[in-house]
């Protein structure tokens, strides 16, 4: 197995991997989207809303604001999220309060437009938990006209993307093929048409030959092949090499999303393995 980290920042991680089957990478990608838990607003109690926006729309907008969950991740590890899933303020079958304490976070949103228009941003949401709060403060929620006000109580809880996309820590989780670009020196006349049409600037001329600058940048669009008058260039994909890209909503660090996906998958495989052992007895 070979791993090459191509990009790694607070927002995105991109790794080129060889020697790992594509279905396994696809499983990790899907787990990143659907299984890694984060916080999101799940209940909104509207105390006052004299804005032009319906309560439901306001609640939906607030629910989609990513909440920072990285620092709170340790305490929610091991929580039975299926219990949290069933729990609501009107639920009769509530889990024990120590579970709720870890799971729920209270927040408030109060805003008023006095004499002039006021744009309510995610930074106006005040959380009772110093670790769980909106990732970005500049997400607009509603514009209040003079005299309008909103007063909301919010309950954020732990959930997973499989329940609703608002809990997904990843905005993008994809696998890509890696290009295998072959250029025949015998057929190439250096007309450079392939370079002109390439949307990712993958090709260049070096030492009087067409060279590939970065195979990982190629998106396999084959425009170079179609433009080549002599059929000197051929683009296909490598069998055993892939790129995995995970972009974070900001709720968790990209590497945390990847690590947690691997952990959850391993845990589920372990459960299957133990079940198989128990069948033998
Ligand atoms: S397949 Fe597309 S991206 Fe790749 S080298 Fe050819 S033109 Fe460029
Ligand atoms: S378009 Fe074809 S012939 Fe022209 S430089 Fe590219 S590979 Fe060579």
From TrEMBL:
GO molecular function, one term: 3 iron, 4 sulfur cluster binding
Primary localization class, coarse: cytoplasm
EC numbers, comma separated: 2.7.7.6
Highest taxon of source: Archaea
One Pfam family hit: RNA_pol_A_bac
Metal-binding listed as a keyword: yes
Cofactor note: Binds 1 [3Fe-4S] cluster.
Cofactor: [3Fe-4S] cluster
Subunit structure of this chain's protein: Part of the RNA polymerase complex.
UniProt-listed HAMAP family: RNApol_arch_Rpo3
Job description of the protein: DNA-dependent RNA polymerase (RNAP) catalyzes the transcription of DNA into RNA using the four ribonucleoside triphosphates as substrates.
Identification of the protein by name: DNA-directed RNA polymerase subunit Rpo3
């Amino acid at each position: 197995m070979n791993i090459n980290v191509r990009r790694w920042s607070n927002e995105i991680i991109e790794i080129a991997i060889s020697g790992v089957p594509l279905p396994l990478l696809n499983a990790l990608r899907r787990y990143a989207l659907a299984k890694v838990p984060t916080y999101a607003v799940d209940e909104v109690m509207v105390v006052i809303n004299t804005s032009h926006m319906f309560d439901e729309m306001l609640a939906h907008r607030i629910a989609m604001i990513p909440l920072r969950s990285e620092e709170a991740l340790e305490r929610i590890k091991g929580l039975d999220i299926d219990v949290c899933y069933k729990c609501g303020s009107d639920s009769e079958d509530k889990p024990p309060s120590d579970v709720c304490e870890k799971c729920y976070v209270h927040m408030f949103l109060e805003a008023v437009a006095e004499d002039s228009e006021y744009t309510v941003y995610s930074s106006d949401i005040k959380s009772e938990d110093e670790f769980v709060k909106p990732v970005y403060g500049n997400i607009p929620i509603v514009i209040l006209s003079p005299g309008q006000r909103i007063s909301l109580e919010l309950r954020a809880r732990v959930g997973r993307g499989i329940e609703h996309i608002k809990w997904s820590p990843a905005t993008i989780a994809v696998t890509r093929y890696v290009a295998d670009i072959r250029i025949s020196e015998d057929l190439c006349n250096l007309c450079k048409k392939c370079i002109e049409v390439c949307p990712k600037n993958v090709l260049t001329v070096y030492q009087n030959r067409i060279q590939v600058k970065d195979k990982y940048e190629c998106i396999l669009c084959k425009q170079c092949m179609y433009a080549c008058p002599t059929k000197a260039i051929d683009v296909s994909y490598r069998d055993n090499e892939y790129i995995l890209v995970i972009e974070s909503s900001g709720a968790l660090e990209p590497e945390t999303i990847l690590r947690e996906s691997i952990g959850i998958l391993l845990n589920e495989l372990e459960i299957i393995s133990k079940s198989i052992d128990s069948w033998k007895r």
